[in-house]
Amino acid sequence: MADGKVMSEEGRRLLLTKAGAPNTIEIGSYSPEPPAAGEVRIRTAFAGINFADLMMRLGLYQPRPPYPFTPGYELSGHIDALGEDVTDFELGQAVVAGVTNGGQQTHVCLPASQTFALPDGVSLEQAAAMPVTHMTAWHMLVTLANLQPGQSVLIHGAAGGVGTAALQICRIKGAGLVLGTCSGHKSDVVEANGGVAIDRYNDDFVSVVKQRTDGRGVDVILDPVGGKNLRNSLRCLAPGGHLCVYGFSAAAPGKSRAYLRTLWAWKQTPSFDPFRLMMSNKSVHGVHMGTLDDQELMRSYLAAIIGHMQMGAIDPVIDRSFPLAEAAAAHEYLHDHKNIGKVLLDMS
To answer: Is position 125 within any domain?
Structure first.
């Protein structure tokens, strides 16, 4: 590695110190390491926050490293150091990357093969808001469900990060009826992105789905909630449909661990009988992008999504960015379901 390629700036990072409420979060300092051969180091500009980070902080998510550790699955920034044998990138280049953890720190070393150069017209904020949400939605809708023009979709949490991403992908793929559950005051963002809003607190989504589909049900359902919600999702899945399960937010209804609520959510979660699914030609998919170890597939997703961003068909919905020092407040903001779209950490 040539001299002058590594900056001496002190690093800062978010630390989950133990299982508990947002006040267990600390911001620590560290000395950034130089990149190894085949790696780049990114000076992080923005890092995405996902509900999985909250679940890990509560001790309810696997896999996760032992405490204390730095979470974060996605980041954007500029390359500030190059390891030996790296020829496809240059210092100062704007990039986006997905990592298994550790994205919520100011300097991140990772293989160059996991790094994606940003084209003109895609901002660092947009880039950081995209990997987890849009790749998750793309994987479910395009790869697993093979969404076809005219098919119907139900998206739970449609005003959130994955939900708004899914709405935009449905529009790209020419979906027919797209229903989205959300808090009543968030219905505008669902409808602005081509969906029909269902008030999650005041409407029975099963009844709405049955009414809007003449009793048939929808072809694709995206469910990050689990528990009783998942049981009801299965009730309104059409024959031949796909139910994608990608979260268990019912297990974490508050900012602190509540074991009885978590156990109750587990008890209400349905067991899937493969023979009943077979008889109705229904499919249930479990989705955990953090354990999907296929870099080529991930790169193909990123390339497709960024291409649609350049064309204006995908525009990540960003609620707001919190300074790294206010990370605990960002977690509380998400716990309170205040966000519309993605929440980021500003790492500057």
So the answer is: yes
